Amino acid sequence: MGDHLEITERREGAVDIVAVKGRLDASSSEIAEGRINRLLDAGGKNLLINLCDLDYISSSGLRVLLAALKRLKKDGGTLRIACGNPQILEVFTMAGFHRIFSISPDEAAALAGFPAGS
Amino acid sequence: MAFSGYGDMFFVLLQMICVIVVVAYLITRTTSFTQVLDGVFNWKGQAILVLLFGALSIYGTESGINILGATANVRDLGPMVGGLACGPVVGLGAGLIGAAARLSLGGFTAVPCALATLLAGLFGGLIFLAAGKKFIGMQGAVLFAVGMEAFHMGLTLALCQPFEQALGVVESVSLPMIIANTTGVFIFAFIIGNLITERQTKAERDTYLSELERKKAELRIAHDIQMSFLPERLPEVPGIEVAALALPAKEVGGDFYDAISLPGGRTAFTIADVAGKGVPAALFMALSRTVLRANTRVPRSAREVVGEANALIAEDAKSGMFVTLFYAVADPGRRTLTYVNAGHNPPLLFRPDGERPTRLKGTGIILGVMPEAEFGEETIALETGDLLLLYTDGITEAINSREEQFGEERLIETVMNCRDLPPGEIVDRIRDAVTAFSGDEPQFDDQTLMVLRVI
């Protein structure tokens, strides 16, 4: 399971960028959670999650994002989401995520939102 | 037995070894022996072991090869192993039997041989005590056998007169005796070592199995407790028919539904999905359900009930736990339904005109994330024949072998094809459709359904 999910990581300055493509559902979200936790364990404080090429997100996927946000908030870090896919944005709106996450339409805009010098 | 060359002698030794293998196997399988391995020492068991190892010692004498009036034999084997594996009582007891049998035969080396057999049992027993009342292991046992037989030869040289005759005997029997006895001890040590490992593995496996059994029992109990959180029987609601179904993916799950009678003939219907599955989700489900129920006790609007429940749940939500919840209050008097949708997948409202259903979309954020969140509520007018389907995403996200999802469209189609049936049968039809669609794919997420019909 989980072969319908593709995760790539890279670093831009002090920002860890995790691009999640495909489907983030009950069967694949544990993999995504593991990858994100590994970055945060390594001391990452600025996390950008790029969901521009995500086709589908379920409540398990939302939980992964929320767990990352809570952890970063506690450690004084920043999490920003880049997503322009209207279907994903609709799920975010349904869950009320637009009120607790900083969501930008694309990666460049999300990257610009991180505090200067980070 | 006549001694006619090394070939014959080793053939006889081989025969001895075969007997020893069988005897070693049988002795180590007796209850008395395994009791000793377990550290249980009683007189009956010890007496049996003394007799068994004593008999082995006598066999060792009788099967020996006569050389110049002395015998190359494995008389010391029984007492040595008895002492090493079962302690000084068994070692000394078996030694006494072996020594007595040897003395009764007489001969040039009777005294040192009998003495050596007695000491073999005693020393073996002392080593057992020194090793902390357990078998010393293969290496130590084999070294002890070599040393003991060398000592035996030394005793013969020291005690037998004339010295030249004693030296002659020792020269011819020392090598075969050391080899034979050491081989015998090696065989015993090997079998005892195997037995100990085998018993340890078995003990570990038993512990593991009983642990597993206990965990399963605990999960069964958890399952029963959790199922008792769901309404055993949905309340009779005037003007509305209701049916529901919950299928957890594991023994316990994070979904729940509820129907709560409110003052004024109203009834609150709710369905919820705790993110995650298994025990963590189940515990959070229990908390959320109780908090929600407690909040319906106070007369307040639907949005206030959910808002208050959210504030309390958020206090306890750790590590990204959250709940999606749909909460609706049906008022049969006014024929209205007032609902709050806190991030739950939109329930489907089928009107009697046969058109496609309306989705009752979100009016607020998921529970457990923002303590101070505000929730909106919507009120719709109910008509006779309205059908409302509440469900969790385990239904629409059920996958088949090609990893396709059941999806909202199939769900709508299924309901449209049976919408005039009683709610209980509609629930069954949906469950059957999902089961048929998934085929052999395991159920990934909890699946929960509730169907309401206005009559």
What secondary-structure arrangement, pairings included, does this model have?
The complex is a heterodimer of chains A (118) and B (455).
Chain A (H helix, E strand, L loop, with lengths): L4 E8 L2 E10 L4 H13 L4 E5 L3 E4 L1 H16 L3 E5 L3 H10 L6 E3 L2 H6 L6
Parallel strand pairs in A: 2-3, 2-4, 3-5, 5-6
Antiparallel strand pairs in A: 1-2
Helix pairs in contact in A: 1-2
Chain B lengths: L5 H23 L2 H7 L5 H20 L2 E3 L2 E3 L4 H10 L1 H18 L4 H21 L7 H22 L3 H67 L10 E8 L7 E7 L5 E8 L3 H19 L5 H15 L6 E9 L4 E7 L5 E3 L7 E2 L18 E4 L5 E5 L1 H4 L10 H10 L6 H16 L8 E8 L1
Antiparallel strand pairs in B: 1-2, 3-12, 4-5, 5-6, 6-7, 7-10, 8-9, 8-11, 11-12
Helix pairs in contact in B: 1-3, 1-8, 2-3, 3-4, 3-5, 4-5, 4-6, 4-8, 5-6, 6-7, 7-8, 9-10
Could you give a quick summary of the protein structure above?
Chain A has four helices and six strands; from the N terminus they run ββαββαβαβα. With about 120 residues, chain A is of the alpha/beta class.
Task: Give structural notes.
The complex is a heterodimer of chains A (118) and B (455). Chain A is α/β, with parallel strands linked by helices. Chain A has one domain (5-112): 2-Layer Sandwich (Transcription Regulator spoIIAA). Chain A contains four helices and six strands. Chain A has helices at 29-41, 59-74, 86-95, 107-112; strands at residues 5-12, 15-24, 46-50, 54-57, 78-82, 102-104. In chain A, strands 1, 2, 3, 4, 5 and 6 form a six-stranded mixed β-sheet that branches. In chain A, strand 2, helix 1 (29-41) and strand 3 form a beta-alpha-beta unit. In chain A, helix 1 (29-41) packs parallel to helix 2 (59-74). The longest helix of chain A is centred in the middle third of the chain and has 16 residues, at 59-74. The mean pLDDT of chain A is 88. Chain B has 455 residues and is of the alpha+beta class. Chain B folds into two domains: 6-206, Arp2/3 complex 21 kDa subunit ARPC3, CATH 1.10.1760; 231-454, PPM-type phosphatase domain (Phosphatase 2c, domain 1), CATH 3.60.40. Chain B contains 13 helices and twelve strands. Chain B has helices at 6-28, 31-37, 43-62, 77-86, 88-105, 110-130, 138-159, 163-229, 278-296, 302-316, 393-396, 407-416, 423-438, and strands at 65-67, 70-72, 240-247, 255-261, 267-274, 323-331, 336-342, 348-350, 358-359, 378-381, 387-391, 447-454. A five-stranded antiparallel β-sheet of chain B has the order 3-12-11-8-9. Chain B has a five-stranded antiparallel β-sheet with strand order 4-5-6-7-10, with helices on one face. In chain B, a hairpin with a 2-residue loop joins strand 1 (65-67) and strand 2 (70-72). The longest helix of chain B is centred in the middle third of the chain and has 67 residues, at 163-229. Chain B starts with 5 loop residues before the first helix and ends with a strand. Classes of the chains: A alpha/beta (118), B alpha+beta (455). The A-B interface holds A 4, 25-27, 58-60, 62-71, 93-97, 99-100 and B 273, 275-277, 318-322, 324, 342-343, 345-346, 361-362, 364-366, 369-370, 373, 393, 397, 399, 403, 444-445.
